[in-house]
Design brief:
alpha/beta; 8-stranded mixed sheet; 8 strands; binds NADP nicotinamide-adenine-dinucleotide phosphate
Amino acid sequence: MPLILVTGASRGLGRELCRQLLARGCSVIAGVREVSQAPPGTEPLVLDVTDGDRVAAAAEAIRQAHGFLDGLVNNAGILLAGADEDLLHLPEDVLLETLDTNLLGPLRMAQAFAPLLRKGGRIVNVSSGGGSLSSPSSWSPAYCLSKTALNGLTAQLAVALRPKGISVNAACPGWVRTDMGGPGAPRDVTEGAAGITWLCLDAPANLTGRFLRDGKEIPW
Ligand code: NAP
C-alpha cells in the first residue's frame, strides 16, 4: 500500500486527489495549513510550503512515524487574482509571493522529503499549461512564470533523483472548477485529478522528467 503525501490537500484538486488515492488503497498524508481541513481518511500533516523550518519539521515527523514515503505531490499553489494581471506593471512583491509558494514550495518539499522516498518513489509537481513556453499568453504573468519555473525544477529534479530510482514529472490538470479555476472552468476536479493519480500509481516507473496532461506528454 503506497504512502503518498499531498500538499494543498484542504480543498480543490488536492482534496479530490486524496479521495482518489484512498479509493485506490493508498495511505495518504494530507499536507494542510489547518489540521481540521484534512480530508476524511487521511493522516493530517500541518505544513505551509513557504515555511522552510515547518517543512523540515514535518519531514522529520514523517521520518519518525513511517521512516519512508512512496510519493510526494506538490499540489499547493496560489494565483493572486486581481494583483497578477499585467506583466509590464507587475508588482515585484506579487511575483515574489507567487514564486515563494509555487516554485520554492515544491523545492523545499523535495529537499526535505526526497531522503524519505524509496527506490521507485514518485514526485509529481502540479503545474499548468499556463507555464508552457510553447504557448505563452498575457494571462496572470506571475502565475505563469512560476509554473514555467516549476517545469524547469521538474526537469532538474528528475536528473538529480534518477540515480536514486525516483521519478519526477509535472502534471497539468487542465482548467478545473475550483476556488482557483473558478465556476466557469470546463473540467470538474475528478477529471482534473485523474492524470495526477495516474502519475502517482499507474505511469511506467521509468517515465521521468516529462510534462503531461491526462497521461499524455505535452510541450514544455
Ligand atoms: P485551490 O482550490 O485554490 O487550492 C489551493 C490549495 O493550495 C489549498 O489547499 C491551499 O490551502 C493550498 N495552499 C496555498 N498556499 C499554500 C501554502 N503556502 N502552503 C500550503 N498549502 C497552500 O487551487 P486548485 O485549483 O485546487 O489548484 C491546485 C493546484 O493545481 C495548484 O498548484 C494550481 O496551480 C494547479 N492548477 C490548477 C488549475 C485549475 O484550473 N484549477 C489549472 C492548472 C493548474 P488553504 O486551504 O490552506 O489555503
